[in-house]
Write a structure and sequence with these properties.
single chain, about 130 residues, alpha+beta, five-stranded antiparallel beta sheet, about 45% helix, about 30% strand, globular
Length: about 130
């Protein structure tokens, strides 16, 4: 599944949306979760606030992750796995989901009450669950 059409197959998107919803309901303080292609296309999401555009979140999240990859490569750190943004109202965690040549970007928004350890642990389990559907 390397083309956008492959990632948008109903079986895959439905399975991923169930995984995202389960993650959001299991890990405290999760507000929004989105799975996108590295070039910024929305694949699946769990959005609790309709004022957010899934397309914009996918594009910006993927772009931020691409910048982080460029920065880590420039500093010879190689193989960027994730970035964390901490703001006054919450956190944004973006991580790679890679498996057998497939690459996706997972964007997670939390409230300020979120414990980063819960988000990191839960997102690792979520990434593993998504990989089973690739």
């Amino acid at each position: 599944m390397k083309s956008l059409e492959d990632y948008r197959k109903v079986e895959f998107t439905s399975a991923c949306e169930k995984e995202l919803e389960s993650f959001a309901q299991t890990v405290p303080a999760i507000q929004n979760v989105l799975l996108a292609t590295p070039d910024g296309f929305d694949i699946a999401s769990y959005i609790t606030n309709d004022s957010h555009s899934k397309d914009n979140l996918a594009a910006v999240g993927s772009s931020l992750f691409a910048l982080a990859v460029s920065l880590t490569n420039e500093l010879s750190l190689d193989d960027c796995q994730s970035i964390t943004i901490d703001s006054e109202k919450g956190k944004i965690y973006i991580r790679a989901v890679e498996h057998n040549g497939h690459s996706l970007v997972l964007l997670i928004q939390t409230s300020k009450k979120a414990m980063l350890a819960h988000v990191l642990h839960g997102s690792a389990k979520l990434a593993e669950a998504i990989k089973t559907h690739l």
